[in-house]
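Structure in, sequence out. Go:
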């Protein structure tokens, strides 16, 4: 793992997992996404991981026109690194998933490192009613949903976004095998260090939220990547803050946000993404960690810079 002097906080603003009925604070409209993203940056997030949603019903959207309603506002409002998803949402093709990233050529995009089951359906037990018809189907359909990221898909994204647009990738690794897949592409020289490796815990279908698994993923990444990577950690739901805190003490960068977790504390909905950023920042600073600015994160990850994006 590359030595770092400061910890990068990524904030995942809205995602495609949670639905509007789950929290009134989940940003859905372009105005809400833009304002919450800027506030998260002001609170200390150096990277903003972004999805779009249909402003009428909150359904995940890959439409570049929707992205265009908030990306320029975020760039004008803060200096954070913009990271556009290539994971998209249920039912989107690979071309639909990368359409916005190709249109806007951001500094970073996500890149999922393997196909997997992605089970959201247990959340059905927590909610008795939904505001929009699509929400229940979205959760139910995840029982038979395979989140597709084949070797060919990954190569296509590396070619079209990495080589084509010079983006850096947030390599999302939901299990140990995903680290080996990334190592395969590193061996083939299709990815360029420094790698930004996001290890993910607590998604049904991926590696579980057991503290021992943090060590497993870290030790595996150390063997595979040595000093060619920066490590980051996210965990779903109530595991978000404990796991990011634990991992930070082991050298990790951290990711928080309403995409991954709706709660600030037990039974307490997070009022905003900025609240989650502020909480992890406070915890890390109490542990004597320094928080990286956006420009410090750019230098660490060697991104192309905000001047080279197309929004």
């Amino acid at each position: 793992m590359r030595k770092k002097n400061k910890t990068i906080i990524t904030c995942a603003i809205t995602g495609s997992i949670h639905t509007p009925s789950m929290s009134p604070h989940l940003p859905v409209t372009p105005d809400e996404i833009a304002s919450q993203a800027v506030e998260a940056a002001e609170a200390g997030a150096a990277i903003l991981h972004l999805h779009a949603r249909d402003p009428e019903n909150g359904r995940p959207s890959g439409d570049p026109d929707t992205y265009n309603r908030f990306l320029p506002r975020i760039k004008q409002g803060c200096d954070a690194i913009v990271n556009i998803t290539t994971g998209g949402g249920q039912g989107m093709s690979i071309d639909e998933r990368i359409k916005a990233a190709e249109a806007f050529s951001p500094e970073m995009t996500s890149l999922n490192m393997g196909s997997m089951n992605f089970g959201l359906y247990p959340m059905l037990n927590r909610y008795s009613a939904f505001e929009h018809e699509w929400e229940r189907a979205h959760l139910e359909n995840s029982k038979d949903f395979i989140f597709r990221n084949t070797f060919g898909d990954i190569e296509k994204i590396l070619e079209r976004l990495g080589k084509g647009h010079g983006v850096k990738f947030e390599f999302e690794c939901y299990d140990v095998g995903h680290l080996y897949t990334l190592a395969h592409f590193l061996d083939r020289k299709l990815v360029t260090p420094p790698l930004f490796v996001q290890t993910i815990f607590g998604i049904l279908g991926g590696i579980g939220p057991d503290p021992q698994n943090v060590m497993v993923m870290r030790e595996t990444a150390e063997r595979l990547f040595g000093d060619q990577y920066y490590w980051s950690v996210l965990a779903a739901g109530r595991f978000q803050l404990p796991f990011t805190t634990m991992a930070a003490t082991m050298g990790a960068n951290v990711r928080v946000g309403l995409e991954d977790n709706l709660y600030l504390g037990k039974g307490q909905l997070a009022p905003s993404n900025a609240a989650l950023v502020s909480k992890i920042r406070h915890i890390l600073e109490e542990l004597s960690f320094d928080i990286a600015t956006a420009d410090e994160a750019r230098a660490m990850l060697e991104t192309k810079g905000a001047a080279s994006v197309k929004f």
